[in-house]
Specification:
Layout: H1 6-15, H2 23-35, H3 38-54, E1 56-57, E2 64-65, E3 79-86, H4 89-98, E4 103-107, H5 125-133, E5 139-142, H6 148-160, E6 167-170, H7 186-194
Parallel strand pairs: 3-4, 3-5, 5-6
Antiparallel strand pairs: 1-2
Helix pairs in contact: 1-2
C-alpha cells in the first residue's frame, strides 16, 4: 500500500473501515475511483456528503428518511392497519423489494440479546407499543431474524402485545424455493415442518 501516494493511501484506509471491505477490496475501489471521470467522482463524493446532511429518522417507523416522515409512511395507499416489525432498515428494504407487503413498518434498530447487554429499553419497543395503543393497527407482523436473538425478540413482542387488541403474526420460515433438502440446516428444516400447511 505504501507505493501509493498519500492521498490514495488515505482513501484506501477510509474505505477499508467500511463493513465487509478489506484492504484489498479498498485498494481496488480506490483505484477504480481514481480512474473515474472527475464528474462521476464528484457525484459520488456529493452523495456521501448528502446522506450525512439529509438523512434523518422517520418520526413514524424510525427508519431512514429525507424528511420528517419517510416515503412509505407518507404513502396514503399503504394499509395503516397492518404493521410489520423488522430489526433493521435493510430488512424493510428486502421486504419492499419482494413487493409482498403493502402495510407500514416499525424498525426496532436491533434485537434483544441479553448476552450482549441489549434489553427491551435498548431497541424501539416502547415506540412500537405506543403505535399499537394508538388503535389504528389491527395486525402486527413480526419479521425479525430466525436466529436466537430474532426469535427471542419475536417471542417478547408477542408476549407484550397480548394485552392489546391486535392480531400478532410471525412470518413463515423454512426451506428456500429451489433449495435442496440435503443442504438445509436442521433448524430451518424443523421450522419448515412446524409451519407446514395444506396444499
Amino acid at each position: 500500500m505504501y507505493h501509493y501516494p498519500d492521498s490514495v493511501q488515505n482513501l484506501i484506509k477510509h474505505l477499508a473501515r467500511l463493513p465487509g471491505i478489506g484492504e484489498k477490496t479498498a485498494e481496488r475501489l480506490a483505484v477504480h475511483i481514481l480512474k473515474m471521470k472527475r464528474e462521476e467522482a464528484e457525484k459520488l463524493a456529493r452523495s456521501i456528503s448528502a446522506i450525512k446532511e439529509k438523512i434523518r429518522i422517520c418520526s413514524m417507523c424510525l427508519g431512514m428518511s429525507d424528511g420528517e416522515v419517510c416515503s412509505i409512511c407518507g404513502d396514503p395507499a399503504r394499509d395503516a392497519a397492518l404493521l410489520c416489525v423488522v430489526e433493521q432498515p435493510a430488512d424493510m428494504a428486502s421486504i419492499e423489494k419482494s413487493g409482498s407487503f403493502r402495510g407500514l413498518y416499525h424498525i426496532l434498530n436491533g434485537a434483544l440479546s441479553p448476552m450482549n447487554g441489549i434489553g427491551p429499553d435498548d431497541i424501539n419497543l416502547k415506540e412500537l407499543i405506543t403505535r399499537v395503543r394508538g388503535g389504528e393497527v389491527k395486525e402486527v407482523v413480526i419479521a425479525t431474524g430466525t436466529n436466537l436473538e430474532g426469535e427471542s425478540t419475536a417471542g417478547y413482542i408477542a408476549e407484550v402485545l397480548k394485552e392489546h387488541p391486535v392480531n400478532v403474526t410471525r412470518i413463515a420460515s423454512g426451506v428456500p424455493v429451489g433449495g435442496d433438502l440435503k443442504y438445509v440446516d436442521q433448524v430451518t428444516l424443523r421450522k419448515a415442518m412446524e409451519t407446514r400447511h395444506a396444499v
